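[Meeting: bench + compute handoff]

Bench side (C.D.) handed over the final construct sequence. Compute side (W.E.) agreed to return the predicted structure before the next meeting so the bench team could plan truncations. Sequence as handed over:
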Amino acid sequence: MLRIVLPKGSLEKATFDLFEAADLPIRRSSNVDYKASIDDPRILDVRILRPQEIPQYVAEGLFDIGITGRDWVEETQSNVHSLGELKYSKATSDPVKVVVAVAQDSAAQSVADLPHGVRVSSEYPSLTERYFAERGIQADIRLSYGASEAKIPDIADCIVDITETGRALRAAGLRVIDTMLVSYT
């Protein structure tokens, strides 16, 4: 019997809709209940957790199957097998991108233009560290718990952030100088 872990947050509704369309509706007592069920004899347990945690829990054998973005598999470097891509994101059926962004008026046109010691705000510190190291750029990487775009220019020189449409980045006066990763669910 399968133990399944599903994403809480921005992917939650689209994931629940996917299961509903597959005639496997997810049942739970309330929207804040992290334990759910699917009326199918093959499924023992269903949990709803943050997508950042899912790859590690699957790799540890706590769950048999998890749905999360490739971004979190790459960030955690979890030893899991991808069974495929689900073509949905928070707002569209397009993939999300993990990007490097700077202020509109920044002189940097590419990552190579960033100075050594560049201050980077990122929700993906491990992925960001590997990315800059592979390019020979010494970076001061600062963990962000969200709203990374608000940290330029006072707290960070650039950010590594996820974007689906680019709207929030543009609204904050930022522009993308590189795409690190394209991720479906």
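W.E. noted at the follow-up: The longest helix spans residues 12-21. C.D. will use this when planning the next construct.
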